[in-house]
Amino acid sequence: MAEVNRQWRLVRRVEGMPSVEDWRLVEAPVPTVEPGTFLARAIYLDVAPYMRARIAAVRNYARGVEPGEVMIGGAVARIVASRAPGWKEGELVVTDFGFGWQDYALLRPEAVRRVDPTLAPPETWLDVMGLNGVTAWFALFETGALRPGDRVLISAAAGSVGQLAGQLARLAGAVPYAVASTAAKIAWCREIGFEGGIAHRDCEDLAGAIRAMLPNGVDLYVDNTAGPIHDAVLQNLAPRARIVVVGTVSLADRLGRPDIGPRFFREILVARARIEGFLVLDFEKRWGEAWARLAELLRAGRIVTRYDVADGLERTPEAFLRVLRGDNLGKQLVRVSAG
Question: Full-prediction pTM beyond 0.90?
Answer without folding.
Answer: yes
